Amino acid sequence: MAGRAQPSGPAGSGAPGLLPLLLLLLSAAAIIPRGDGQNLVTEDVTVVEGDVATISCRVKNSDDSVIQLLNPNRQTIYFRDFRPLKDSRFQLVNFSNSELRVSLTNVSVSDEGRYFCQLYTDPPQEIYTTITVLVPPRNLVIDIEKETAVEGEEIELNCTAMASRPATTIRWFKGNKELTGKSEVERWSDMYTVTSQLLLKVGREDDGVPVICLVDHPAVKDLQTQRYLEVMYKPQVRVSQNYPLQGLTREGEPLELTCTAFGKPQPTDMRWLRVDDEMPQHVVVSGSNLLISNLNKTDNGTYRCEASNAVGKSHADYMLFVYDSRAGEEGAIRSVDHAVVGGVVAVVVFAMLCLLIILGRYFARHKGTYFTHEAKGADDAADADTAIINAEGGQNNSEEKKEYFI
């Protein structure tokens, strides 16, 4: 049964009969049985805390019946276009015979619930709409186990989204890569606090990379916070040859090497040494550079540059092999000799081919002349028998027959 409405009628106003009439109508509303709402239409409302909710009670087939709106406590909010309830957050948006539309500003969680539309017909009708209030997280915080981590360590990060409704979903990203965390939900009254834990093993490539905590919640969009990782790592060492830039390291020539090292923190200790042997006395070391002005074969070996910082020590090696002073020149001479020999062979082969072609043409021409004289006289014979005799070298032509021997 509906509760009695609490009207705030215009007592003392210029309409002396209005208040008794309203009280009579509201009393009648208190005893109206719940109908099936077959002629009423409304929709559920979802609104973010602090925003405006609009409730609409519509009549499909209007017959000038009275429409009223009640709150979850069955108190009348609006009776036709009159608001008995003193809550000024309710404002009339539209009133007609077919619709009663009311707005509720600055919505809070306490406003959540069922609101009833009633229509005074015979029999009376009633239908309800539900207001759902969403509350975004009030705080989003990342706590990190260590402000500065060392490469290879596993660190713990926690992201907390406080006082949301419903419970939020937390997602983790390292740069553009999504990671998987483990979430726990705590409920306080009508609110939910969610904490997500992420275990992350860091490397030097993670230094300066943001770790992002992002919230998925229907009441908020693009809510996120981030922390930048600070990772310390031991040096990376590289040895480069400045001189000679290319080619062989030969006796009597100089050699210059440079050592570069990068780390976090930046390496403060850098030194050169010779592996498995003492450093030659004529080697000059100046900071990150190593110089040998006059190479000889006793300098052969492995030279190492070591660098260290607070995290650890690293090194890079350079293997030196000193060649004879003319090693490069002899190689060049051998290259020239091979080119000359190849050219001579090509010329000889070409000349032989030309000679074979000339001889072939000569033999072919003289062999044709022999066959021409052999058959001479056959064309002038009177008949076939005479032609055969003449072609076979008859007595008349025996003197003219000539042979050529090759």
Taking Cα atoms only, what radius of gyration do you get, to the nearest Å?
A: 54 Å
The separation of the N and C termini measures 141 Å
Oligomer: single chain
Rounded mean pLDDT score: 82
Q: How large a portion of the residues is in β-strands, by DSSP E?
A: 35-45%
Poorly predicted sequence stretches spanning 5 or more consecutive residues: 1-36, 369-375, 394-406
Helix content: 10-25%
Estimate the global geometry from the Cα principal axes: elongated
N to C succession of SSEs: HEEEEEEEEEEEEEEEEEEEEEEEEEHH
Number of strands: 25
Number of helices: 3
Main sheet properties: 5 strands, mixed
Widest beta sheet: strand line-up: 2-9-8-4-5
Structural class: alpha+beta
SSE diagram, text form:
Layout: H1 18-30, E1 40-41, E2 45-48, E3 53-59, E4 67-70, E5 76-79, E6 90-95, E7 99-104, E8 113-119, E9 125-134, E10 139-144, E11 149-150, E12 154-164, E13 169-174, E14 177-179, E15 182-188, E16 191-201, E17 210-217, E18 220-228, E19 231-243, E20 255-264, E21 269-274, E22 284-286, E23 289-292, E24 301-308, E25 313-320, H2 327-374, H3 384-391
Parallel strand pairs: 2-9, 11-19
Antiparallel strand pairs: 1-3, 3-7, 4-5, 4-8, 6-7, 8-9, 10-12, 12-16, 13-14, 13-17, 15-16, 17-18, 19-20, 20-23, 21-24, 22-23, 24-25
